[in-house]
Amino acid sequence: MFTIRSRDLPDVADVLVVGAGASGSVAVKELAEKGFSVVCLEQGDWTPPSEFAGDKPEWELVKQKQWHPNPNVRDHPADYPIDTTESDVNPLMFSGVGGSTILYAAHWCRFLPSDFKVKTVDGIADDWPFDYAELAPYYSRMDREIGTSGLGGNTAYPDGEEFPLPPLPIGKIGRKAAEGMDKLGWHWWPGANSIPSREYRHRPSCLRYGTCLTGCPAGAKASTDITHWPAALEAGAHLVTGARVREITVDHKGLASGATYVDREGTEHHQKAAVVIVASNGVGTPRLLQLSTSSLHPDGLGNSSGLVGRNLMMHPYGAVSGTYEDNLESWLGPAGHAIESMQFYETDASRGFVRGAKWNVMPSGGPLGMRSGYGGRPVDESWGENFHRNVKANLGRSFEWGIIAEDLPDEANRVVLDPTLTDADGIAAPKLIYKSSENTTKLIDFHVDRAREAHEAAGAISTSETRLMRDCGWHLLGTARMGNDPATSVVDQWGRSHDVPNLYVIDGSVFVTSSGVNPTATIMAIALRSVEHLIGDRSNQLTSAVS
Amino acid sequence: MLTDAERERFAQIADVLIPSAEGMPSASQADVDTVWIDVALTHRPDLDELFRSALVVGDGLPGAEIVELLNAEHIPAFEALGTLTAGAYFLNPEIRVRIGYPGQVPTIPRNDVDSYSDLLENVVERGPVYRDV
Ligand SMILES: Cc1cc2nc3c(=O)[nH]c(=O)nc-3n(C[C@H](O)[C@H](O)[C@H](O)COP(=O)(O)OP(=O)(O)OC[C@H]3O[C@@H](n4cnc5c(N)ncnc54)[C@H](O)[C@@H]3O)c2cc1C
Ligand code: SF4
């Protein structure tokens, strides 16, 4: 199953990347194409589109286990367990080539300009070390690399966002939701998705299975195993799958010298490197940095600020589902967002909280997905004659307005090493300590009430709501934040560790604030910006004496 | 494979959960107990143990009472049983046809901008909604 793709690994790589997910893929491709020798260590394996269940009858059964986004439920050999007993939200992710983009919904969203200046505009948290205008060219390049489908002219964004592909259909659910927004005079726009609406760069068009959250059986959705890895391997990158990194090693000066990893046979290896990039996501990265202790870095690597693992942000998610008279074929993809709304995105002090949320309309799947967690409620609510009535009333007739709540950085929300729990290789597992804040509660309450009004305006005959979904930690952010001051941040604006100048972090951990949109467009744009700087500044790059 | 006794008990419970009503066949009429439960179990081997544990609850009681007992006192087993029963029912292609669910079938995306451009014009007229900072 797990295979070492490249047996001819260099003794000392120019750059070692830990994690083959969204950000790691960008770094590896960019570096390999510029001629650097790159080794990427990834604990998971490849997942060919034929393995996904989306085009098979059993899809709804297996999505609740084998393809569940919560690694504690999925319990795949590549996953590590996570102690969530002190967290309001479960972290979600995937371990494999492509990382969590294998399961992501491909909502492709840029930050808004104000997201980079939260301190300046709202007097809380911090500003980012760069702004929207600076990141915009990287967003555009990433749009072209991954093939974004969308409609230009969105009034929620500054002018200039163009998409390489026309928008995907918003379908009957999008149209119905838009009618409600129109009545209320609220903003909406067709969703931008990293899903090709027609063939793009050897990738087929989306086939609207609507199963994006469990992997795309058509091989259409832009997961980085498809968008980045073929070119990276072609350019000579080395990828070792099934390689669980247990420690980033350092030399006598405290510079990163490589990484120790365990293969799936349990054998330990060491890969030397001149530069190490950690791209293991907002939970995996602080875990690994905390595992990498030494006499020069007793509290973990790059952790002189004490902020490695802190300021975890996960975007608590609320949702209002509406049921309609008409058959809206609400199982049809993509899933993906049909439309979005940024009406209540920006702060309005009169609401009693700061910041806001993006809303998105998504399909609701098939007949089984609508029926979960029925144990303990009266039997005849879900079973007996009502079993049939519920299917008739809901199947194809309901869709959700989802609410991505911006949560603010709070040092108390953190990833630590669990004192007892370990993964299959005996390496300490992460533990999450995360409480949703009062600001978030008020924010979600306000947004849920408005989303209910949006459904009602659209003609919903009934609505139901979730104010904080536990399985919603899709976005893992902030645990190795960037900034100019080494006392209050872990890495600089290029992802370079303040403490260890040949150690970089380029995944969602570097976020200063979380924004209220899905983060992957921003993660990948920042990764591209960071790695380009690393390449451009290579003559000044300090490297380990070992190499 | 389920034993004959397990299968019999399952049929009894499954028809309480999914009876013949609203113009739809019951679980056993849709071959849930004879065909589709086996298919469902091959896809969810993780639920096998809990499922079988549900089939020994309430020996000798009528199906409806067993279901009440499971729901009150054996929630994880009842949830496994419920997921598998409903999942098996919806695996039957005839049932999918009758509920009007084609399953996830390939559909070419067609650009439908024309169908909503009237509504979008209103959004554009209302102007920007972001803070220019
Ligand atoms: C179900 C779901 C839906 C989502 N939907 C959206 C969406 O619609 N839009 C959006 O913008 N974002 C979405 N996301 C989030 C998106 O997937 C992530 O933001 C993105 O993938 C994060 O990129 P990353 O590089 O930080 O980490 P990842 O993509 O998670 O990659 C990290 C990689 O590192 C590997 N790794 C970790 N530790 C080690 C170790 N010790 N040794 C070796 N390898 C290791 C992991 O196996 C993994 O492959 C979704 C996520 C999920 C789970
Ligand atoms: S809707 Fe499109 S992108 Fe999503 S899984 Fe289906 S084919 Fe893939």
Describe this structure in words.
- With 547 residues, chain A is of the alpha/beta class.
- Chain A has a domain at 3-156 and 214-313 and 410-437 and 471-544: 3-Layer(bba) Sandwich (FAD/NAD(P)-binding domain).
- Helices cover 23% and strands 18% of the residues of chain A.
- In chain A, the strands form three sheets. In chain A, strands 1, 2, 5, 6, 7, 8 and 16 form a seven-stranded mixed β-sheet that branches. Chain A has a six-stranded antiparallel β-sheet with strand order 4-10-11-12-9-15, covered by helices on one side.
- In chain A, a hairpin with a 5-residue loop joins β7 and β8 (268-278).
- The model of chain A is unreliable at 1-5 (pLDDT under 50).
- By secondary structure, chain B is mainly α.
- Chain B has helices at 4-17, 32-43, 48-54, 63-73, 75-91, 93-99, 117-126.
- The longest helix of chain B has 17 residues, at 75-91.
- The N and C termini of chain B lie far apart (65 Å).
- The interface between A and B is large, with 80 and 58 residues.
- The complex binds flavin-adenine dinucleotide and iron/sulfur cluster.
- Iron/sulfur cluster (SF4) binds next to loops of chain A.
